[in-house]
Amino acid sequence: MNSAADSQEWSVIVNPNAGRGKGNKDWKEIESLLLSYGLLFRVQFTKARHDAIQMASDSIGQGYRKFIVVGGDGTMNEVVNGCFLQNTCPTTDITLAIITVGTGNDWGRLFGIPLDYSEAIRIIKNGKIHLQDTGIVHYFHGATREKRYFINIAGLGFDAVVVKRTNIQKDRGRSGKTIYLWNLLRTLLLYRNTQVEVIIDGKIIRNQVFTISLGIGKYSGGGMMQTPNAITDDGLFDLTIINKIRKGDVIMSLKMLYDGTIYDHPKIKGYTGKHILIDSDPLIHVEADGESLGHSPIEFDIIPKSINVICNPDKDF
Predict the structure, then answer these.
(1) Could you tell me the mean pLDDT of each successive run of 10 residues in the chain, 317 residues long?
(2) Are residues 158 and 93 in the same domain?
(3) What is the tally of structural domains in the chain?
(4) Among 300, 155, 161, 166, CA closest to 241
(5) What is the DSSP letter of 220?
(6) ∠ CA 286-99-240 to the nearest 5 degrees?
(7) pLDDT value at position 170?
(8) Last residue of a domain, one of 126, 160, 183
(9) Is 168 within a domain?
């Protein structure tokens, strides 16, 4: 182990492609601000998808315990996975912070991290530490069972299709705050409800389902609240199931996704649970923290109070 742990040096992981290249374009400004606030750090730049997983894991092996992600929710998700896949130290020894340069920024929104770089770094310097839950999802790629950790929200069915289309467009260089909403409306034209079995801590629910969201946090899709009552450290997922619903009703109810009243709709039900199994016919796909994964059958487990995050000191939990 080097002196990084003793010196409290930060490992900064930058996604230069985040926010349509803002990670690269704004890095010199961010670097100058980090130095002006007296933060000690080492910086690494990702070059391809999943680079941040290995960078985080390797950094922990080198003694680093504090990370600043310069990117969006997807880059943070990769760093989280690197933290949980390493065997050097308990994840409760690790602290995560974010300087948001992505398009969705839902995890940063949850913890009151402003888009202004100077203010975000001030919070990293002086903010409070919050010990939050983490989720783990097992899913399939064909016959192969895989896993992914996440710290905000996972979506299945309609939501996963929207995220997949959004990610394809991001990979092609398209971005912006409205991209998720645009793909939501476009996907709605052809999407079909799916027969789903959901088992929440042993309780079985079978129904025709439009979409499902599992939240540790409450924000997704650039400010939508699909799990508005989620609490980040209660050891439970908040589960929102939107049952079979008319397409026109989806459009008419979009406001409810933004104002936190989604459970007032008669087709939408909320649950909480620690262990959740989901199967379907036909297969449905899953995304976590905006990263497209695989398909059903899908299994979720919560890991209570398992990683430290820096949040705005004015944020009340």
Answers:
(1) 63 93 95 97 96 98 97 95 97 97 84 95 94 98 96 91 71 63 75 93 96 95 92 98 89 89 95 98 92 94 98 83
(2) no
(3) 2
(4) 155
(5) B
(6) 30
(7) 64
(8) 126
(9) yes
Which of 26, 30, 54 minimizes the C-alpha distance to 41? 30
Pairing of the two strands 275-281 and 268-273: unpaired
Q: Is 252 left (phi over 0), alpha (psi -120 to 50) or beta?
A: alpha
* Straight-line distance from the first to the last Cα atom of the chain, in angstroms, rounded to the nearest whole number: 35
CA 215 to CA 237: how far, in whole Å?
A: 5
Q: Are 40 and 8 in contact (CB under 8 A)?
A: yes
Whether residue 310 is contained in a domain is answered as no
Average pLDDT, the chain: 91
CA distance 271 to 214: 9
Tell me, yes or no, whether 113 lies in a domain. yes
Find how far residue 63's CA is from the centre of its chain: 25
Closest by CA position to 219, among listed 185, 186, 177: 177
What the block records as the tokens of 135 is: 């989720």
Kindly list the distances between the CA atom of residue 42 and the CA atoms of 11, 53, 124, in Å, as whole numbers in the listed order.
5, 16, 15
**CATH number of the domain residue 281 falls in:** 2.60.200.40
CA-nearest of 204, 193, 184, 196 to 271 is 204
Q: What is the pLDDT of residues 32-77, one digit of tens each?
A: 999 999 999 999 999 998 999 999 999 999 999 999 999 999 999 9
Output the CA–CA distances (angstroms, integers) from residue 274 to 21, 40, 202, 266, 287, in the order listed. 38, 38, 10, 25, 18
Claim to verify: residue 144 and residue 44 sit in the same structural domain: no
> In this structure, what are the phi and psi dihedrals at residue 26, rounded to the nearest 5 degrees?
-100, 0
Q: What is the pLDDT of residue 1?
A: 42
Alpha helices, DSSP H only, in 195-263? 247-252, 254-259
**pLDDT-above-70 percentage for the chain:** 92
pLDDT at 5: 53
**Which domain, by its residues, includes 62?**
4-126
264 inside domain: yes
Determine phi and psi for 213, rounding to 5 degrees: -125, 140
